[in-house]
Amino acid sequence: MKKYSLIIIAGICLVVLVLGHLHWKKISQAAGVEAREAAAKVKEKESEEREALIESLKPENNYSYWIAVPN
Question: What pLDDT, on the 0 to 100 scale, is given for residue 24?
Answer without folding.
Answer: 95
